[in-house]
Automatic annotation (TrEMBL):
Keywords attached to this entry: Secreted, Signal
Record-level GO cellular component terms: extracellular region
Similarity comment: family membership: Belongs to the major royal jelly protein family.
UniProt lineage: Eukaryota, Metazoa, Ecdysozoa, Arthropoda, Hexapoda
Secretion signal span: 1-15
The protein's name in its UniProt record: Protein yellow-like
C-alpha cells in the first residue's frame, strides 16, 4: 500500500511538473534562427491606382514621403498588415498590406481595405491607425484615433476615436465602426496606442493603452454590448523623468510618453477555480514592467472611482535595462520586447522571475534602431518593425538612408490569441493529462488491481 501511495504521489508531481515545463521549455525545444532583415525602405511608397493619382497626391502634399512611418504590424493569411499613423501631414493611407512571402526587399504598400477607406475627413474611413490586432476568430480590431497631425502644432480631431472591426474570414472587408463615448475617450487629447484582444467563452474584450499626455490609462472595450470604460493608475501608467531621455546611434531625443506597450498572458486558473489572464504593460518613458489581472480591468465599478483604486492590484515586476515601445506575448507566455537604448530585442518567459529571467536574443546598433511592434505568423516566425522613430519625431528623416526595416526570425512561436482556452471543456479531457503523469497513474492503478 505504501508503494501505491508513493506511485500516485509521484504521478501527481510529474503531471504538475510536466505542465510547468511545457511552457518553460517551449522556446528552447525549437532551433532558433537569428533575426534577419527581410524588408527595408528608405521611404514608404504605395500601390497607386494610376500615375495621375500619385502625381495629384504629391502636388497637393497629400503624399509627403518622409512623413510616412511604419509603426504597427500584424499577420493574417498571406499578408502582413502595416500601420502608418498620421502624425504628420502627407500620409495617403494609414493601413496597408504587403505579402508575407518576400518578392522584393522594398515592396509598395497596398491600402487596406481600399484607397477610399483611408480618406482623410471621411468618418466612415480610417483616419489615424496606430495598431491593429487579429483575434483567434479572424476578426481584425483596428484602433482609429480619429485625430490627425499629432506631431503638428494644430492636431485635427477629424472624427471620433473609434474601434473598427473587420471580419477577415468573410473576405468582404466590411468595416464596423464603434465610436468611443467622449466622456470615456476625449477626442482632443486621446492617443490610442496599442491593444490586446481577450477571446473567451464569456465574450470578447479589448484592453487598449491610451498614452494621452493629460489622461493616460487602459480602456476596456466589451464587444457583446459595445460598452467601454477607462481605468487609471497614477504611478504605473505615467512616464518618469529619469526615463524620458533616449540616445540612439548618436541621436538624442526627449520623449515623456505615458503607458504604451501592452501584452496578454495565457489563461490560468485562480484559487477560486475561475479562469483569468495577466495583462502586462509599461509606459514608453519607464524602465519598469507592470502586471494586473484582466479580471480587475473588467470590473467596471473601478472606473467610477479615483485614480488610486487600481493601486492594490498592480504588480511591479521589476526593471529593464532600457525603455520599451511595443511588446507581444506568444501562446505559451513568452514576452518579446525591445530595449530601445540598447539596440536590443529581448524575451522573458513569464513563468520565471522578471528580474532575473530576461534574455537578449538580438543586438545590433545598425539594424535595430527603435524596435516598435511584433507579430507572429502561422509558421513559427516572429516579425519585428524597426522604424528609427527618434529621427521621425525630430523630423530628421533622410531619404538617402534606410529608415524602416522588418526583421524576421524562426522562434517556433505563435500569437497569444491562440493560447489554450481553459474555458473549453476539452481542456479537461483525459487526453490533456501529461504523458509522464498518465503513465505513472496507469502503473499505480495496475498495482491496485493486481
Amino acid at each position: 500500500m505504501m508503494l501505491l501511495v508513493f506511485l500516485i504521489a509521484l504521478a501527481a508531481a510529474a503531471a504538475q511538473n510536466d505542465t510547468q515545463t511545457a511552457r518553460t521549455s517551449s522556446t528552447s525545444a525549437v532551433r532558433r534562427e537569428q533575426f534577419r532583415v527581410i524588408y527595408e525602405w528608405t521611404y514608404i511608397d504605395y500601390e497607386w491606382e494610376s500615375q495621375e493619382q500619385q502625381k495629384a497626391f504629391l502636388n497637393t502634399s497629400r503624399y509627403i514621403p518622409q512623413n510616412v512611418l511604419i509603426s504597427g504590424i500584424n499577420f493574417y493569411g498571406e499578408s502582413l498588415f502595416l500601420t502608418m499613423p498620421r502624425m504628420l501631414d502627407g500620409v495617403p493611407a494609414t493601413l496597408a498590406t504587403i505579402p508575407v512571402l518576400q518578392t522584393n526587399t522594398a515592396p509598395k504598400l497596398k491600402p487596406f481595405p481600399s484607397w477610399s477607406d483611408n480618406t482623410i475627413g471621411n468618418c466612415n474611413a480610417l483616419q489615424f491607425v496606430q495598431n491593429v490586432e487579429i483575434d483567434r476568430n479572424g476578426i481584425m480590431w483596428i484602433l482609429d484615433n480619429g485625430r490627425v497631425g499629432t506631431l503638428t502644432p494644430t492636431p485635427d480631431p477629424k472624427c471620433p476615436p473609434s474601434i473598427v472591426l473587420i471580419d477577415m474570414k468573410s473576405g468582404k472587408n466590411e468595416m464596423e465602426r464603434i465610436p468611443f463615448p467622449p466622456e470615456i475617450v476625449n477626442p482632443n487629447t486621446t492617443y490610442l496606442n496599442d491593444l490586446v484582444v481577450d477571446n473567451r467563452g464569456d465574450g470578447d474584450y479589448a484592453y487598449i493603452t491610451d498614452n494621452s499626455a493629460v489622461d493616460p490609462g487602459i480602456i476596456i472595450f466589451r464587444r457583446s454590448d459595445k460598452k467601454s470604460w477607462k481605468l487609471r493608475d497614477s504611478q504605473s501608467m505615467m512616464s518618469v523623468p529619469e526615463a524620458t531621455f533616449f540616445r540612439i546611434n548618436g541621436t538624442n531625443v526627449n520623449l515623456p510618453v505615458n503607458i504604451d506597450g501592452i501584452a496578454l498572458g495565457p489563461q490560468f486558473k485562480r484559487n477560486d477555480d475561475k479562469v483569468d489572464r495577466t495583462v502586462y504593460y509599461s509606459p514608453l518613458s519607464s524602465f519598469n514592467l507592470y502586471a494586473i489581472n484582466a479580471s480587475v480591468l473588467r470590473n467596471e465599478s473601478l472606473a467610477q472611482n479615483n485614480k488610486n483604486d487600481l493601486r492594490p492590484y498592480v504588480v511591479d515586476l521589476g526593471t529593464k535595462a532600457s525603455q520599451t515601445d511595443g511588446m507581444k506575448m506568444d501562446s505559451t507566455g513568452v514576452l518579446f520586447f525591445g530595449l530601445i537604448g540598447n539596440s536590443t530585442i529581448a524575451e522573458w518567459n513569464s513563468t520565471t522571475d522578471f528580474r532575473t529571467g530576461q534574455r537578449t536574443i538580438a543586438r545590433d546598433p545598425t539594424y535595430i534602431q527603435w524596435v516598435d511592434r511584433f507579430t507572429f505568423d502561422d509558421r513559427g516566425n516572429t516579425y519585428v518593425v524597426v522604424n528609427r522613430l527618434f529621427n521621425f519625431v525630430k523630423q530628421q528623416v533622410s531619404l538617402n538612408e534606410i529608415n524602416y526595416r522588418i526583421l524576421k526570425s524562426f522562434t517556433g512561436s505563435k500569437s497569444y490569441v491562440f493560447g489554450d482556452d481553459l474555458t473549453s471543456e476539452s481542456q479537461y479531457s483525459a487526453a490533456s493529462i501529461p504523458m509522464v503523469g498518465a503513465s505513472l497513474l496507469m502503473v499505480a492503478f495496475s498495482f491496485l488491481l493486481a
